Automatic annotation (TrEMBL):
<dbReference type="GO" id="GO:0005524">
    <property type="term" value="F:ATP binding"/>
</dbReference>
<keyword id="KW-0067">ATP-binding</keyword>
<dbReference type="InterPro" id="IPR005893">
    <property type="entry name" value="PotA-like"/>
</dbReference>
<dbReference type="InterPro" id="IPR050093">
    <property type="entry name" value="ABC_SmlMolc_Importer"/>
</dbReference>
<comment type="subunit">
    <text>The complex is composed of two ATP-binding proteins (PotA), two transmembrane proteins (PotB and PotC) and a solute-binding protein (PotD).</text>
</comment>
<comment type="function">
    <text>Part of the ABC transporter complex PotABCD involved in spermidine/putrescine import. Responsible for energy coupling to the transport system.</text>
</comment>
<keyword id="KW-0472">Membrane</keyword>
<comment type="similarity">
    <text>Belongs to the ABC transporter superfamily. Spermidine/putrescine importer (TC 3.A.1.11.1) family.</text>
</comment>
<protein>
    <recommendedName>
        <fullName>Spermidine/putrescine import ATP-binding protein PotA</fullName>
        <ecNumber>7.6.2.11</ecNumber>
    </recommendedName>
</protein>
<dbReference type="InterPro" id="IPR003593">
    <property type="entry name" value="AAA+_ATPase"/>
</dbReference>
<dbReference type="InterPro" id="IPR013611">
    <property type="entry name" value="Transp-assoc_OB_typ2"/>
</dbReference>
<keyword id="KW-0813">Transport</keyword>
<keyword id="KW-1278">Translocase</keyword>
<dbReference type="InterPro" id="IPR017871">
    <property type="entry name" value="ABC_transporter-like_CS"/>
</dbReference>
<dbReference type="GO" id="GO:0043190">
    <property type="term" value="C:ATP-binding cassette (ABC) transporter complex"/>
</dbReference>
<dbReference type="Pfam" id="PF00005">
    <property type="entry name" value="ABC_tran"/>
</dbReference>
<dbReference type="GO" id="GO:0015847">
    <property type="term" value="P:putrescine transport"/>
</dbReference>
Length: 356
């Protein structure tokens, strides 16, 4: 299959400001890869470099082994979808979708056939004659998608395409996109600042922070094994605690931590203990050999329907969040001010690099 992308050491600065800071990453043919990061982390800039709208100061991008940066934008075989649709307002739905085929001089009959097939794919074939202003936001986004897909590009670039839609429609479109991609299989680079959307859609996620690649991994690995505090804080919920690093043990609250198998000791980089609220256990384990104990005082308990959100404070003043599942009747919900002991499995006791 075609559509492999090799991004090497791409750098883009604006004056003294660095927008893309020596990013290298490989995208596999047919892969759905998401660039995830907070606003200003360089996602759109990197996508525009791929599209050919921005020239990087340094680096190389190869598509199927051929240098892409010297190829003019209109000759790059890519479809693009943006947040603000960018449809032609004076054209009908069908005319919008036909446009890329006209540019490529596809003949009338073949063009009509492909427009129809693509509109069917996004369930818009009954609205081909409508004007763009007669469509809802979700329908417009489908037209934009159809227009980007109609010439069957080997690469699809999407920049926050669903962010203007309301929550229900956005979640619906996420599932549609996922199905569509599974069916068509074009290499897709998708940009979002929404971690949940990234986890839902992607084969792999590249987390960007201040123009740097913070981690590139599968959704599962990013969540279970974030390599630094930035990634751990950006994906899912986490609390972080200072630990004492010794020659042969890492100590927390005066006890040596039991750590996941393979955790390195004596690393030069400063690390913190990371705790996911949902991994904390309230029941004293019958076997504590692979469990770490955390002592805390409950501060506030908030009812949230399926669980209680419990805010706790440790003896050094640091804060911890936990969830107390309802139906966990053996262990009563703590009252504010009471001392509690929580338990964390060694495999969930992660040390992550303090910096990004
Ligand atoms: P994101 O899409 O992740 O929100 P962008 O790629 O749009 O981020 O921008 C990354 C950073 O580069 C931002 O801080 C932005 O202000 C800066 N930037 C983008 N374009 C320009 C430009 N033309 N001139 C100066 N700074 C820019
Ligand atoms: Mg952006």
């Amino acid at each position: 299959m075609q559509g492999s992308i090799a991004i090497r050491d791409v750098y883009k600065g604006y004056g003294t400001f660095t927008a893309i800071d020596h990013v290298s990453l490989d995208v596999n043919p047919g892969e759905f890869l998401t660039l995830l990061g907070p606003s200003g982390s360089g996602k759109t800039t990197l996508l525009n470099v791929l599209a050919g709208f921005i020239r990087p100061d340094a680096g190389s991008i190869k598509v199927d082994g051929v240098e892409f940066l010297t190829c003019p934008p209109h000759k790059r075989d890519i479809g693009m979808v943006f947040q603000n649709y960018a449809l032609f307002p004076h054209m009908t739905v069908a005319e919008n979708v036909a446009y890329p085929l006209r540019l490529r001089k596809v003949s009338g009959a073949e063009r009509a056939r492909r427009v129809k097939a693509t509109l069917e794919m996004v369930q818009m074939d009954h609205l081909g004659e409508r004007g763009i202003h007669q469509l809802s936001g979700g329908q417009r986004q489908r037209v934009a998608l159809a227009r980007a897909m109609v010439f069957e590009p080997k690469i699809m670039l999407m920049d926050e395409p669903l962010s203007a839609l309301d929550k229900n429609l956005r979640e619906h479109m996420q599932l549609e996109l996922k199905r569509l991609h599974a069916r068509l299989g074009m290499t897709t680079i998708y940009v979002t600042h929404d971690q949940k959307e990234a986890l839902t859609l992607s084969h792999r996620i590249a987390v960007l922070n201040k123009g740097k690649l913070a981690q590139l991994d599968t959704p599962d690995a990013l969540y279970e094994r974030p390599s630094n505090r930035f990634v751990a804080g950006f994906i899912g919920e986490s609390c972080f605690f200072a630990v004492e690093e010794g020659a042969d043990a890492v100590t927390f609250q005066g006890r040596a931590l039991k750590l996941p198998k393979g955790t390195a000791l004596k690393v030069s980089q400063p690390r913190v203990l990371m705790v996911r609220p949902e991994r904390l256990q309230w029941q004293v384990p019958s076997d504590t050999s692979a469990m770490n104990r955390i002592d805390a005082i409950a501060r506030d308990v908030v009812y949230q329907g399926d669980s209680y959100h419990v805010g706790l404070v440790l003896s050094d003043g640091s804060e911890l969040t936990a969830r107390h599942q309802k139906g966990f009747r053996e262990v009563p919900v703590p009252t504010p001010g009471s001392a509690v002991e929580l338990w964390l499995h060694a495999e969930d006791t992660l040390l992550v690099a303090e910096g990004a």
